[in-house]
Design brief:
Length: 417
């Protein structure tokens, strides 16, 4: 056999590889500094592989096989999509049947326990039944505390699962392969469904997501299913699914709100109108995924479409708020009546002063009337006409002008010799 080029260096590599913390770059530096041997990095890594000095982190992956109706898997993943003229970050929720690999996805602005119950209800209706076990990760949306086999589910989610005849089971931490059947579909949805598509809103997005599941994801033949599509295999699995309950209640959240003085209740930073006679009263708000219902003493008093992708929005029902009647003006105030109607120059100054005043301008007119009654008429007239000439409507400066006109009449400004 041909002698390897760096065969003489291999014992040195083996000797220093451990003390260099399996860093091939550092081994190359020691070979160059101590022994005068220059070895390329690619040659070093090849020697490391050939001598099995580094433990191979990649291990052979196994597979999980399930019988019909035995298991389903649920998970979420953040995706960025194009909604209108802006990019939106949304949570993609997915459910897949373990045997037939039938897929169902929906998108939500956020994913809490409320959205989880909304999604799972829609998903199980789409599947036509449920499996006895639902594998999830250790998310706090479903898990109250613990992880893996020690996980304890939240009571409301456990009751929700019992209604559909299933049980939530959390996989161990760092064992995402346990639900690989749902994990691999996120990349499929992101690179196939979202690619090149622009959506007008959340309703349009989820409607097209269901259509994509039917036409593309569940209709595509899979080699792992023997060349059959998930929709075809699901026909064989459906008799083994647990049937849906006779009545599936609407998912909603009960909130208690105080109607503010503007006649609104606030839910998730958005405001919804309530009949104005309930201002200051406590009402019960039923928050659904698509609607907001308001009840007062067990009687529905309002219903609105829920704002999903807005903050600080407002919806007003036409019958809730009557137009506010503004008090009609009774004509000029008594100060204006006392000032006007005698001199044209004074009428003109009062009109211009009101244009520049806040509100009715009564405070400024009262000050002007005080100036007229306090100082001599001639000085007052000269000051106002001069103010009109220069466009001066500051009453403090007007008073100074009046004082300058009356200074010689009231004060002896001549100094004694």
């Amino acid at each position: 056999m041909r002698k390897r080029r760096h065969q003489a260096v291999e014992p040195l590599v083996r000797q220093h590889f451990g003390e260099c913390r399996q860093n091939a770059v550092r081994v190359g530096q020691i070979l160059s500094q101590r022994y005068g041997q220059t070895v390329a990095y690619s040659s070093l890594t090849r020697m490391v592989r050939q001598m099995d000095l580094r433990e191979n982190k990649r291990k052979r992956s196994g597979s999980y096989e399930f019988g019909p109706g035995e298991e389903m898997q649920h998970d979420t993943s953040p995706h960025t999509l194009q909604m209108g003229d802006k990019k939106v970050k949304a949570q993609c929720a997915s459910l897949v049947l373990g045997y037939s690999k039938k897929l169902f996805i929906q998108y939500y602005p956020k994913f809490t326990r409320f959205e989880a119950k909304v999604f799972l209800t829609a998903a199980l209706k789409y599947m036509g039944g449920s499996c006895g076990r639902c594998i999830i990760d250790n998310t706090c949306v479903v898990v109250a505390h613990g992880s893996g086999s020690d996980a304890v589910m939240a009571p409301e989610m456990e009751a929700f699962a019992q209604m559909f005849g299933t049980t939530f089971v959390a996989h161990n931490i760092n064992d995402a392969d346990r639900k690989a059947k749902v994990e691999r579909n996120f990349s499929y949805a992101e690179n196939n469904f979202l690619a090149g598509r622009i959506f007008t809103g959340w309703d349009d997005l989820n409607r097209r997501a269901v259509k994509w599941c039917e036409i593309t994801a569940n209709a595509k033949p899979k080699r792992s299913l023997g060349g059959m599509s998930p929709a075809e295999v699901c026909v064989m699995e459906k008799p083994h699914l647990k049937p849906l309950p006779m009545h599936i209640p609407t998912v909603y959240m009960t909130l208690v709100r105080m109607v503010d003085l503007s006649g609104f209740v606030t839910v998730d930073t958005n405001r919804y109108s309530v009949p104005e006679h309930l201002c200051g009263r406590k009402v019960e708000v039923l928050k659904g995924y698509e609607s907001i219902e308001v009840y007062y003493k067990n009687r529905k008093v309002g219903e609105h479409r829920r704002l999903l992708d807005k903050r600080d929005g407002k919806i007003i029902a036409a019958s809730h708020h009557l137009p506010i009647e503004r008090k009609k003006s009774k004509g000029p105030c008594k100060e204006q009546q006392a000032l006007t109607g005698r001199q044209d120059w004074l009428d003109h100054y009062v009109a211009e002063l009101k244009k520049r005043a806040y509100g009715s301008g009564r405070r400024k007119l009262s000050k002007l009337l005080e100036l007229e009654r306090t100082y001599p008429a001639e000085a007052f007239e000269n000051a106002v006409q001069k103010a009109l000439q220069y466009g001066l409507y500051d009453l403090i400066r007007l008073e100074r002008m009046i004082l300058s006109f009356v200074a010689g009449d009231f004060f002896n400004l001549k100094q004694d010799d």
